[in-house]
C-alpha cells in the first residue's frame, strides 16, 4: 500500500495533514464573520488543499446567521474571460441547489435573465439580482477562487476586481471569498492592470502556508502502513534534512520509497540511508523543476536577489521584513544566528547558480577552495595511484560516505558527473582531516609545516559557514581580514609548492 501515491493532488479528510493554526485562522475570519480570506504560499505548498479542507470541514450545515452554506470552488486559471468566471459562479450555485431539489421560480427567473445577458454591465446587474434571491432563499455562498494568480491575465482592468469586492462586501448578496495564490493580492492586481483597485484591502492579513512543522511531518509519516518506530524516526530526520518538511517534496520521496517497499518490504532503519539516496536520485528532475518554478516566481517578483542576499550576503537591499516573509512562505528558515535555505538540498541548488555569490570574499574563498582540493587530489593520486579514493574510503569511511551523499544529490540535480572528484564535495575541516591523516604522503604538495596549514584552514572553516549563511554573529571586520590573509597565504603556498616540486611528482 502506498498512501503517498497521490502526491501533488488536492487532499482533504483523513489524508489532510496538520495546518491547525491556518485552519483556525480561516474559520475565525470566514466562517464566523464572513470576512474574505487570502491564502498565500509557494508553489505546491498545500494552499488548495487547505482551502478545500476548510470548505469540507466548515462549509456544512448553517452559518451563524442561520443560512445554509453553499460551498463552491472555481479554478481561476480555467476562466476564459472576465465574464466566464462570474458566470461559472452562478452556474455552480444553481447546480448545487438544483441537485438538492430546492430550485424555485424566484431563483429560476433571475438565473435565466443572467444567461441571456451579453454586456459586462448587464451581466453584473443580473448576477447581483440572482445572488440577492439566493440570499433571500436562505443560502450563504462560500466560494474558493483557486489559483487566483491567473486573475492578472483573465482580468485586464480594475472593474472585475471591484465587482468581486462588491460581491464580498455588500450584505444583501454577500459571497464569502477565499482566494489561493502564490503572490499577494496586491501584486496580482498591479500585474493585471495599471488601474488602481481597492479589492486587496478587504482581505486583511493573508494566511501564509509554509513547510510542515516537525509535528506535521511526523503526522505525514504516520500515514505509512509501516509502524516500526525506529524506521519512522529515521524517516523524520532524513526528510527534515532533505526537504525541510516541504509537503510536496516529502510526499514525493515517501511515495518512491513505498513503491519499492511494496515489492521488497521496508528497509531496516539502519540500512535506510541507501534507499533514501536512491529515492532522492529518482526524484531529482522533479525536485529541480520545483526549485526552478520557485525561483522563477521570485525572479518575477524581484525577490530572488533578496533571497540570495539573506542567505549569502551582503545584504544591500533585503531587510528583516523580506526575510520574515520568506520564512513564513517556507523558503528559508531561521537558525540561531541567521537564516538558511528551507532544506539542505535547496541550499545546494542555490549554491550551484552562477549569480548566487557577489562578494569578493566569497570569490576569494572559492579560488582557495578549488586550489586546495586540486592540490590534495594530486597529492593523493601521487601517493596512492588512481585507487586513492579506495584508500580514503578505508581510512575515513564516514567522511567519504558523506561526500558520496552530496555527490548523489548533485547528480540528481544534473550538476555532477562520474568524472568529478570526491574532494569536490568536501568542507574545509574535512579537507584538513584528510591532509593530517595522510600528511607524510601529501607534504611535498603543500610546502609548509602541518601546523601552519592547520591554523589557516581552521580559521577559514570558522568563517566559511557564517559567511555562507550570512550569519553576522559568526564574523567581525577583524576576523574577516584574517580570513582574507589566510586565503591569500594558501594560494601563495600552493603556487610556490607547485613551482618547486620535482617534475616526476607534478
TrEMBL record:
The protein's matches in InterPro entries, at most eight in alphabetical order, are given as: AAA_22, P-loop_NTPase
Q: Name one Pfam family in it.
A: AAA_22
ORC1/DEAH AAA+ ATPase domain span: 38-179
Gene3D superfamilies reported in the protein's UniProt record:
P-loop containing nucleotide triphosphate hydrolases (3.40.50.300)
GO MF annotation: an example: ATP hydrolysis activity
Protein name, as recorded? ORC1/DEAH AAA+ ATPase domain-containing protein
